Amino acid sequence: MSLGRIARYLWPAVPVLIALVITGLLLVVFGVSPQAGFGAMLRGAFGDQSRVLSVTAFWVPLALASVGLVVSFTAGLWNIGVEGQIVIGAIAASWLALKFNFSGPLQIIFELLAAMIAGAIWAGVTAFLKTRGKVHEIFGGLALNNLAIIFTNYLISGPWQPPEGGTFRGTVPFPTKALLPLYGDSRLSPISVVMVIAAVVIVFLLLRGSYWGLKLKALGKNPSSAFLLGVSSERETILALMFCGALAGLGGAVRVTSWFDSLRQSISGGIGYLALLVVMLSAFRVLLIPFIAYFFSAVLNGSITLQLRTQLHSSLGGILTGVLVLMVLLFGELRQLKRFSEGRVSSRPDE
Amino acid sequence: MKVALRDIRKYFGQVKANDGISLVLESGQIYGLLGENGAGKSTLMKILSGYHQPDSGQIELDDKDVKFSSPAEALANGVGMIYQDPLDVPSMRAVENYLLGRDLRINLAYSAATSEMIENASQLGFKIDPQAFIDTLSIGERQQLELLRLLALGAEVLILDEPTTGISAEQKEGLFASIRKLAKESGKTVILVSHKLSEVQELCDHVLVLCKGKFVGEVDIPCSTERLVQMMFKEIPPRSSRVSYLREKNLLELSQVEFEGERLAVTGINLTVRAGEVFGLAGLEGSGQKLLLQACAGLIQPKRGKIILDGEDVTRFSYHQMRAASVAYLPAGRLEEGLVAGLSLIEHVALARPQKGFVVDWNYFERITQSQIDKYQIVGRPETLVHELSGGNQQRALFALLRSPLKLLLLEHPTRGLDVLSAQWIWQLLLNRVEEGSSILYYSADLDELVERSDRIAAFSGGVMSRIVTATETTADELGHLIGGEE
Q: What is the number of domains present in chain B?
């Protein structure tokens, strides 16, 4: 491996360090020693087995959605709608869990499939609005996110409310066979970890070795050249978004069948938006996704312990990840600036 | 205002857009700036109007050295430019645009501005409703508004870049009348950048000619078109004999075809291209020749008429259908429309070939790419990213991506920016295709190339196709006339 290559794989570490320093300074301002603060965070994330399991359980849907986003980003699409696709996946899985009764493992398999289909269709709506209605996928996605969340609230306070009356918090717990098998008394299902690994491998192979991956890459880098080279931009746009939607929907199913045991209000809790940050941090390299997503999950879960130990609000974890993403975006720009000054992106004459 | 440009240089990478240009322009005079595409006209005018900064050289206004870092600064010094596409804000009203660029702080005196605008407009014989939204105005009216705005901001030097593209004949008359008035009565210095020789002859007092980034001469109007053509395109080339592979069969037939671009409508195209024919299109940029190629490629749909390819009606074919019907289109913008920056040669080869299965066989394509690299003498490796190739090599790469066999090749500027040897080599490749029975329909700004390489040629001028001439019986001179819209 050449030095340049090593630097290329290590560069995400630089903004991480800067973000840690900034957050550390913030801790000092609030009178907490950074050592104690980060120590509490670390213990909160990895202090004992149950915490590690919890971090991992939170990581699964985040990683699934992030892996899906790598596909849509490769095609040059900003799938902000990923949040809504998670929610719709959760709703679809809940629908089967509450209203249907299949024998044995078929129950959970159908739930997961339904979630993927629903997520794909929800993303397909965004895609269709883009290709046919000229609605930018960011706006279409945002609108559909809100619709999905409103739909959840309607369901849990209306048709799916528990018999004892709507608390506006969730449906009744699903029967055990409608849930993913859990490890011990944790919220983690080992099967869901397998899903993440499978998704990473599949997307890695698709983007590296398939015609489809190549077309998405061309489309993302230059739509008009890709079109003239024979890529059908409409078809690939729709497929890329639907692929991402399916993985996000699967993530939503994992949320309702292992993290929770029912459909809740704010079932995703912003995992989709978090996934966008994960992907930006990864610079669209799918093999980095599981690690970055795990880091995010650890920070967010660890900061809950931070609150207990230091009386600092747990939103510090959010601040850390937020600063981190800003740093990463800034560093991306810096790299581009550097390339510009090296003359690789040169201005052109006008004629 | 007297304008003097002294030894202006502006390089874009290897391209010497302006290579030491010195000019003096007197007030009260109308100058035409002529030159073929890439001669450096736009760059020079953008330097004068503050949009670009020169690498070296001085600008003097009334014998005073000036330096502009922005168009606003140039305008404050009295230099205003009207761009080919008016730089207004379409969602705003005319009077709001009229006020743009003035520092009125918080007091936008609309009523005063409205009456001032009407007053100024009527002096020049324009009529624009101050309350109209820009997107309801025609291009001509938007130009008039832009002119009014620049004058109100104190422009003494007016640069007009291709002002008559996309405006009606009547608006053109009005515009020319007002320009004459501004020059002769108000002493403005006017520079008209135009491709249309007839307009230059009609309006201007003097003509300045640029060629390949250098100032090559100045003549006073009236002056013969021959002379202008000669100055623009330098000498007429010696004719080299070439073999023709013309066959009897008609490959492409267009009858009464009509289509529309953003700024230009082209009507009544009747054209037949025979198998094995090289058909050249002359014309200044934006005269309709690109639209014709795009219509033949299925990229724009004709509004009327019929396109027959090899006996099949392809009028309503999409681009992908045309491609499947063995038509290839090579656009002029290599990295904008032809290649995907950031992808390697091998990835391009895999994309351009018909898809087999789901998985890309990279080893197979590496071998294919390497053999194409050898065949087309591309300086690069299969994994080289295309944007790292030089322009000439990018052009070769585009040719290497073409499928075989092809019925029809549609080319824009096939050898633009290539040196003589590379151009010769590209034409050898093209003639090999023709020998195999492909037809070529192409356009070029290089009249020598058109005369030397084509079987037949037609010229476009303002959306109208001229009569078709046989290459062996025509001269660059005659083409120059046809390009200028003369019969």
A: 2
